[in-house]
Amino acid sequence: MNAKDLRIVFMGTPEFAAPSLRALVGGGYNVVGVVTSPDKPAGRGQKIHQSEVKIAALELGLPVLQPEKLKAPEFVEALEALRPDLGIVIAFRMLPEVVWAMPRLGTFNLHASLLPQYRGAAPINWAIINGETETGVTTFLLNHEIDKGGIIGQIRVPILPEDNVGTLYERLMTTGTSLVTETVDRIAAGEIRPVEQQHIDEATLRPAPKIFKEDCRIDWEKPGREIVNFVRGLSPYPAAWTEMYREGDGEASSAKIFSASFEAAVHGEACGTLQSDGRTFIRVACADGWIALGELQIAGKKRLAVRELLLGWRDVQQCRFRE
């Protein structure tokens, strides 16, 4: 069977999915429809926002479906009318069986980790937070359980010491496009032998659950390398943060930390203590040394490099971060 003849329905929402959609259409694959999230208000002005996948689909001239409910009869009927041979899902909602089982060749998902490790909503973040030196992308067939279907293909990607979520996201997004088209070709050729994820000791796996604001709070009593990985794994979004207060002032504010490095040292300072020369550096005491801050954003202010921030931060020596 020619892969370019397969009738493909593509499902996704964010930026991470859009390049794969463009690669499929650019490569001559027959994408007959795109399913994405409904438009919704966003930002301070609450302007109606279209998903990145919808924007790409409209530019490519593809039909777009935006169901509120994936089990709604009118959506299921519209999907059936597309007569899909294959479904592709990237960063979308959990699908009901009536949707993922509809294409005659099934539906596969692209996930940003080396499954079975880092199943869940935030695999890129957690891989960096946990200090991994390698991750990758995986395609797998959907089944009744989240991220547990038979693995079709994987590509490994190194995590560099200077990587944060932003840089690693870009590389995985690019790598994912080639794995998606390769997976379509293999399915069309009948060359897949899915590797089931059954009989795996769950205790050996690291999960990747959704990250909430309170999960992003820095614990300055932890070892320095863990803190730096934590900052990298949350930068630029949603961003690691800390509570900050001035000596003699009962009111606390907050600061987001976007980049940092670790200096091992023995010191007698309380964790969270700030030191600075007022011109070139700010460092924070942690369990086994100092965290040198690179970029941060004080609540209500702009995100700035430390040297720029210190031009207007005169009382930095009277501040501390709460451990």
Automatic annotation (TrEMBL):
The gene is fmt. It comes from Alistipes shahii WAL 8301. PANTHER family: METHIONYL-TRNA FORMYLTRANSFERASE, METHIONYL-TRNA FORMYLTRANSFERASE, MITOCHONDRIAL. HAMAP family: Formyl_trans. It holds the Pfam family Formyl_trans_N. This is Methionyl-tRNA formyltransferase. Belongs to the Fmt family. One of its GO terms (cellular component) is cytosol. It catalyses: L-methionyl-tRNA(fMet) + (6R)-10-formyltetrahydrofolate = N-formyl-L-methionyl-tRNA(fMet) + (6S)-5,6,7,8-tetrahydrofolate + H(+). Keywords: Protein biosynthesis, Transferase. (6S)-5,6,7,8-tetrahydrofolate binds at S113, L114, L115, P116. SUPFAM superfamilies: FMT C-terminal domain-like, Formyltransferase. It comes from the Bacteria. One of its GO terms (molecular function) is methionyl-tRNA formyltransferase activity. Residues 7-182 form the Formyl transferase N-terminal domain. Its EC number is 2.1.2.9. Attaches a formyl group to the free amino group of methionyl-tRNA(fMet). The formyl group appears to play a dual role in the initiator identity of N-formylmethionyl-tRNA by promoting its recognition by IF2 and preventing the misappropriation of this tRNA by the elongation apparatus. Residues 210-312 form the Formyl transferase C-terminal domain. Gene3D superfamilies: 3.40.50.12230.
